Amino acid sequence: MNIRFLETFVWVARLRSFSSAADKLCTTQAAVSNRIATLERDLGVRLFERDLRNVSLTPQGERALAQAETIVRLTEELRLGVSEASSLRGRIAIGTIDSIVYAWLPKLIEAVKATYPDVDIDLTVDNSLTVSRLLLDRQVNLALIAGPVLAAECSNIDLCTYQCHWFAAPHLGLHGRRLSLVDIVANPIFAFSKGSQPHQNVLRLMESAGLDANLNLVRILNSNSLATITRLARDGMGVAVLPTEVAREMVERGELMQLDVDADLPPLHLHAVYREEPGSTLPALIARMAAQVAKAEDAATLTPSANARRNQIRIASHTK
User: Fold this and answer.
1) 161 partner at 20 to 30 Å CA-CA among 26, 38, 87, 113?
2) What's the CATH number where 182 sits?
3) pLDDT tens sequence for the chain (320 residues)
4) 173 and 261 share a domain?
5) Where does the HTH lysR-type domain start and stop, copy by copy (predicted)?
6) 280 plus 139 within the same structural domain
7) Is 107 exposed, middle or buried (0-12, 13-18, 19+ CB in 10 A)?
8) Which of 257, 260, 245, 259 is nearest to 162 (CA)?
9) Residues 96 and 231 in one domain
10) What one-character-per-residue DSSP string does 58-74 give?
11) For the chain, what is the domain count?
């Protein structure tokens, strides 16, 4: 049985279109039709119902699809397993968020280029909601985001967890004492873009404290640019909600202070997400590489020297 014909079957089933499958496989619609006809003849069943507008799986096609996907995936894994990593070629579109860019994305890109020198990377940086939509629309192949993405065709790999805290410039005078949310909302709050996890977490805290953001009692300013948020916070324009790892260097330089607030922010859970698709293992390989890089970075911050530095920062953040 021809593996290429099985891959064609999987793509037609996923895209519900012979012409779309032909475009995806860089062939003609006639070639796709011939492959499916041959496969149906070999299997002795009809895989698709066709009319002028729609293509749908028959009951036999539904049963065959899962097995065909497994065979195609295992074939690709076998091919990669016996070949040199350096021989892997192609292009991958990665969508990610600022929090990862500021933390360990450069190390991931270095690792990809060292392992797969002939793989090119297209990078898109936006908020998690936008990147997840790009993934589902097949405009990016791999999403590194605050996830997961709960779609049947998507695989999610845990990357790491970022603790989030309140930060402000030293000259605002908010550090060195215990603060309530009422103290915090006397200043504008920077909490990433609307709909993001940090933004939703802030809204829930305000609601639980009886503070109504819709009556202008709380000024939440939104931006999907971490550079913008941190610049405004460092300039004393308000209080920022940031992952600790993102703010660490700014705290070390004395540009921001971590505040002692009686309202804890939930952590940010980061995931690598990719679509399970036939003949495409590069996103899965780089997703696993991203998990290794993220865990290595997390472990590096827990070394004795790093812990000592954190203790110094914590002491400094509680003293004027």
Assistant:
1) 113
2) 3.40.190.10
3) 788 899 899 889 888 889 888 887 888 999 999 999 999 999 999 999 987 678 899 999 999 988 888 888 788 767 666 655 556 778 899 999 988 998 899 999 999 999 889 889 999 999 898 999 999 988 899 999 998 898 878 889 999 999 999 999 999 999 999 999 989 988 999 988 887 888 888 888 888 888 865 556 778 888 878 889 999 999 999 999 999 988 999 999 999 999 999 999 999 999 999 987 766 678 988 999 999 999 998 777 655 444 444 444 343 434 33
4) yes
5) 1-58
6) yes
7) middle
8) 245
9) no
10) -HHHHHHHHHHHHHHHH
11) 3
- Residue 7 tokens read as 């891959």
Residue 306 counted as domain residue: no
Structure-token pair, residue 168:
């402000």
Range of the domain at 226: 164-266
Tokens 């215990």 belong to 178
Among residues 82, 116, 134, which one ends one of the domains? Answer: 82
Nearest 5°: phi and psi at 12? -65, -40
Residues 185 and 274 in one domain: no
Residue whose structure tokens are 């940031």: 242
- Cα separation, 233 vs 241, in Å, equals 10
